[in-house]
Amino acid sequence: MFRRFVVLIVSTVVVCAAADNNVKVVEEIAxxxxxxxxxxxxxxxxxxxxxxxxxxxxxxxxxxxxxxKEAHADVLSKEIDTLLLVQKGKDLNISVDxxxxxxxxxxxxxxxxxxxxKFQQFIREQTGMTFEDFKQQMKNExxxxxxxxxxxxxxxxxxEAELQKYYDEHKSEFMRKEAQVFLSQIVISTEGKSPEQVxxxxxxxxxxxxxxxxxxxxxxxxxxxSDDVETAKNGGYVGSMPKGMMDKAIEEIVFxxxxxxxxxxxxxxxxxxxxxxxxxxEAGQASFDEVKNELQDRLTQPKANAKVRTxxxxxxxxxFLEIKDGYVDSGAAPGKDTRWKDVAALKPQTTTKEEVAxxxxxxxxxxxxxxxxxxxxxxGKTAPAPAATPAPAAATTDKTPDATPAKTPDxxxxxxxx
Length: 418
What we know:
By secondary structure, the protein is α+β, with helices and mostly antiparallel strands. The chain folds into 2 domains: 26-155 and 321-399, Porin chaperone SurA, peptide-binding domain (Triger factor/SurA peptide-binding fold, Orthogonal Bundle), CATH 1.10.4030.10; 178-282, Chitinase A, domain 3 (Roll), CATH 3.10.50. 44% of the residues lie in helices and 13% in strands. It has helices spanning 40-56, 61-72, 75-91, 97-110, 116-127, 131-151, 160-169, 195-213, 218-225, 229-232, 248-254, 288-318, 353-363, and strands spanning 7-8, 26-33, 36-39, 175-176, 180-189, 237-242, 266-268, 271-281, 284-285, 321-323, 350-352, 403-404. The strands form 4 sheets. Strands 2, 3, 10 and 11 form a 4-stranded antiparallel sheet that branches. Strand 2 and strand 3 (36-39) form a beta hairpin. Helix 3 packs across helix 6. It comes from Solibacter usitatus (strain Ellin6076). This is PpiC-type peptidyl-prolyl cis-trans isomerase. Residues 371-418 are annotated as: Disordered. InterPro entries: OMP_Chaperone_SurA (IPR050280), PPIase_dom_sf (IPR046357), PPIase_PpiC (IPR000297), PPIase_PpiC_CS (IPR023058), Trigger_fact/SurA_dom_sf (IPR027304). Keywords: Isomerase, Rotamase, Signal.
């Protein structure tokens, strides 16, 4: 009796080496990271996403091929980065569950979809992902950003002499054509709420204003209470707003207010909005003190890129990491042996799709796309996630991968037993 080997080759159609119904399609494991796995199917899916995104950006011909080739070389490295950061977040007991819940609720309200089933269908249509995959990718995105901020960004500083030198050499870049105000906000949503709930939201907003005026940190109040998740996670910070970008009634107030002013709640379409004036500048040449925080952020970024890479290298050095022959980790820690050791003792080297899903759910380690870096904020605010934040790794989906028979047995492809 001969054995049937099933080796995964990712495409769009399933072709098995055997027609036997007892043989299951398997996912080839490309790497093991502290007990979690990255599969060949995930890597291929990510490559397809990279190519699709490059095409959406208008790249064609040789430029498209070059961009895709460069990105493909780093796919495994970035998936390993993501897994290590998510695992570190769990070790640090960082929780983003509340942020995920608020963000999903916000999206549902924005899309005006009250029915849960229709909302999940909307997510599938817009992202090509199951709702659970989408939710987990959002969770991991937030988690990795928090880890980078906590473990790397808060330890980066730029000496004032270096800031001053840069300012003196680039003064023309800091000319303001018009007045600007820097704002933070707290949003108490009223969308889809009953009159009684709207009244309760207004009371909550007024209470928050009173607490801020009594000395509580506005950033803490925003982080704990604002229904706008994107700004809440940064302490409510919105950024600079030139004239003409806001409601005239609001502009009349904030452009005349002093730094530190906290407004009464404004009733807007989405709910009650509380604004804090973080800073305000007139048109003309910006002084060094006025742009000091912007300078800090601008000069921090190159340092952050290197620091993030160093941090990820250290995580690799401390990790149990094995990579199958034929796969390359472009971010490998120098000197660390990640070769696939003693293949016979590490069975199985392939795994069923069901096992992949079960393991990912158990460890809550779905792969994510990276978050978008937002504008930075005045002094005293949390630093943004660096541009070097690891890119996404693709999640195993319900789409069945293509499989072709191996001509010779692959030591990393263990047959499924009947």
